[in-house]
Every structure is written in structure tokens, then in C-alpha cells.
């Protein structure tokens, strides 16, 4: 089919060829726009989202049983199954996407970003969960521009480890290393977005 169109365009005069190319551009543009409309119609809900979210929660429940009391008593939490962090010389950053729960019910999505300035080199990935102690703490996060202060740290959890950590300023943060070397769990300056489902 494509060959016939190509040969047909060669046989056309320059004027007709120009008109035919314009028409092809319009048709291609129409298909692209139709694809974006269909994609955006389904972008609000993906049946795999609940499975992905559930797997993130199960990963923490399985590998950090000491967090059970947080799951039971926190008003809400945001779980990020995979956060990627890297740095070169004086600049680094982190990025991840995750899911948000209110009273153990999936209610939204979140993205995490972090920019670091200072000596650093390497890459790592980890899972992160942020628990919110009260509705006020959760509502502060849900506003959409939640940021951890520069001194914020997370508890580095090793598989099966119990923890006696508690909330600080209404949040408790835990990370589990997945790949790369992680000497400390620095989360200061992380910014979070929130989008309801």
C-alpha cells in the first residue's frame, strides 16, 4: 500500500504532488489527534494500577514486618516501589512514581523528585514509603506540592528488620535498598505531587 502511494506521488505533477502531501499531512495529523484523544480517555484508569499499587504495599509488608503498626495506625501513606537516584560530581537527583492510600484505600498517584547539590557519584535504586500520622498531615500532602525539609531522613530498613522508629513532624519515612550502595537514607528536599484517581 505504501509503495502505491509513493509511486502515485511521483507520477503527480508538482502542484498536485504538493496538494497530495498536504492532504497526507492532514490525514496523519488527524490520526495522531484521534490517538491522543483515545489515550487520554483511558489515562485516568488503568486496571493494572491497583495490582502495581498492591505489589508495592506487599513488598514493604513482606520485607519490613516491623512496619505493621504503621500500616495499621497511619491515616494514609504513599508507596514508591522503585525510586532511582544518581549523581555525578556536584549534581544528583532522584525520581520515582507511586501510589497513595487513605485509610488503606487506594486514592491517588504521586511522583517524587529530588535534586541534590554537592559531591556525589554513583547510582542506586530503592523502595520508599511515607506514612502520614493524621488526616491533617495527609491533607497537607494531598495539596500536591509537599516537600520534605532539608534535614529529613528516612529509616533504612534491611529485610526482616523490626523498627522502633516514630513519626517526625507527622510523617515517618522508610526505604529498602534495591540496587547500588546506600550508606544513608537522605530524603531531604524530596518533592511530591499528588493526583487523585
How is this structure best summarized?
The protein is an alpha+beta fold and 197 residues long. 36% of the residues lie in helices and 38% in strands.
Descriptive labels:
single chain; 197 residues; alpha+beta; 2 domains; six-stranded mixed β-sheet; 5 helices; globular; disordered N terminus; Ysc84 actin-binding domain-containing protein
Commentary on this structure:
This is Ysc84 actin-binding domain-containing protein. The chain has 197 residues and is of the alpha+beta class. The protein folds into 2 domains: 2-43; 47-196, no CATH class. The chain has helices at residues 2-11, 14-43, 47-63, 68-73, 135-142; strands spanning 76-102, 105-132, 146-147, 155-156, 171-179, 191-196. Strands 1, 2, 3, 4, 5 and 6 form a 6-stranded mixed β-sheet that branches. It is globular. Residues 1-9 and 26-42 have low confidence and may be disordered.
Q: What structural class results from the helix and strand content?
A: alpha+beta
Got a strand count? 6
Number of domains: 2
**How large a portion of the residues is in β-strands, by DSSP E?**
35-45%
Number of helices: 5
Residue ranges: pLDDT <50 for 5 or more in a row?
1-9, 26-42
Q: Oligomeric state of the chains?
A: single chain
- Tell me the Rg in angstroms: 24 Å
State the helicity in percent bands: 25-40%
Order of helices and strands: HHHHEEHEEEE
Protein name: Ysc84 actin-binding domain-containing protein
Organism: Chlorobium limicola (strain DSM 245 / NBRC 103803 / 6330)
Amino acid at each position: 500500500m505504501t509503495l502505491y502511494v509513493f509511486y502515485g506521488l511521483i507520477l503527480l505533477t508538482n502542484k498536485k504532488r504538493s496538494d497530495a502531501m498536504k492532504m497526507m499531512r492532514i490525514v496523519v495529523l488527524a490520526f495522531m489527534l484521534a490517538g491522543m484523544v483515545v489515550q487520554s480517555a483511558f489515562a485516568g484508569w488503568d486496571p493494572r494500577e491497583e495490582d502495581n499499587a498492591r505489589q508495592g504495599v506487599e513488598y514493604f509488608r513482606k520485607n519490613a514486618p516491623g512496619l505493621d503498626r504503621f500500616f495499621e495506625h497511619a491515616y494514609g501513606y504513599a508507596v514508591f516501589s522503585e525510586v532511582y537516584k544518581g549523581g555525578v560530581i556536584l549534581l544528583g537527583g532522584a525520581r520515582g512514581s507511586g501510589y497513595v492510600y487513605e485509610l488503606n484505600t487506594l486514592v491517588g498517584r504521586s511522583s517524587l523528585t529530588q535534586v541534590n547539590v554537592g559531591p556525589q557519584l554513583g547510582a542506586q535504586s530503592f523502595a520508599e514509603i511515607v506514612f502520614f500520622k493524621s488526616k491533617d498531615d495527609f491533607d497537607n500532602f494531598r495539596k500536591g506540592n509537599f516537600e520534605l525539609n532539608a534535614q529529613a531522613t528516612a529509616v533504612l530498613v534491611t529485610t526482616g528488620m523490626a523498627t522502633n522508629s516514630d513519626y517526625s513532624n507527622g510523617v515517618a519515612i522508610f526505604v529498602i535498598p534495591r540496587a547500588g550502595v546506600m550508606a544513608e537514607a537522605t530524603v531531604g528536599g524530596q518533592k511530591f505531587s499528588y493526583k487523585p484517581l
